[in-house]
Amino acid sequence: MDDDSDERSDQVRSALLKALAVVAGIAVLIALGTTVMVRALGLDESESPGPLSGSSSDQTKPLPTTALPVPGEKTETPDPSTSPSASPNGATGDIELRVSPLMARPMERVNFTGSYKGADNTELQVQRFETGKWSNFGVTATVKVGTYTTYIMTGRSGENRFRVYDPKAKKGSNVILVTVD
Fold it and tell me: Confidence band (pLDDT; 50, 70, 90) for 93?
């Protein structure tokens, strides 16, 4: 009977070790999957939030709330007679851009938020009006569930006209004037 009991104990021990190995493997897969999803969704605060990030203190700073537009107030836009068209075919109104703050110091974070009706997983280019034409600024924003958010930092002082642009649909947003001084 000792042989049967030892053999049975070995079988139980072997089964427990195998079950433990399976549970450990599942835990590792869950941890890896969670890490990948957090990074893919941009929820990892330890990584840079954008291509032009500043110091690590800028990365954890919340978006400002005092300079955001108040509902019912108009967002400052340039005079249509002096500003360029928002897109080659004229703005359709599908892409809306809001910027905060409208007056910034050189290399201060300027937040871009907005909506794009009927769009999802669309990449928008941030563009600045320079020497009579729109130029890509080097920053993009991805539309998720009809909204997008990104930010820029510029050292170019004076009045800067910005928009976001969908290169696939050839649509531009409204134009926003940001004064840097």
Answer: low
- What's the whole-number mean pLDDT along residues 27-34? 93
How many domains is the chain built from? 2
With the C-alpha atoms ordered 53, 59, 63, 67, is the resulting torsion angle positive or negative? negative
Let me know if residue 98 belongs to a domain.
Answer: yes
Output the CA–CA distances (angstroms, integers) from residue 81 to 77, 120, 128, 130, 160, in the order listed: 11, 32, 18, 17, 16
Is 70 found in the same domain as 108? yes
Distances (CA, A) of 102 to 2, 61, 123: 85, 18, 24
pLDDT at 50 over 70: no
Q: Global pTM?
A: 0.51
Could you list the residue range(s) of the whole structural domain that residue 143 is in? Answer: 56-180
Distance of CA 41 to the CA centre of its chain: 9
Q: For position 6, what pLDDT does the model report?
A: 87
Mean pLDDT over residues 67-73, rounded? 52
What tokens were used for 116? Answer: 């794009």
The whole-angstrom separation of Cα 129 and Cα 177 is 10
Is 7 a domain residue?
yes
Q: Is residue 50 part of a domain?
A: no
pLDDT at 89 over 50: no
Any idea what the Cα angle at residue 176 is, between residues 174 and 181, rounded to 5°?
Answer: 170
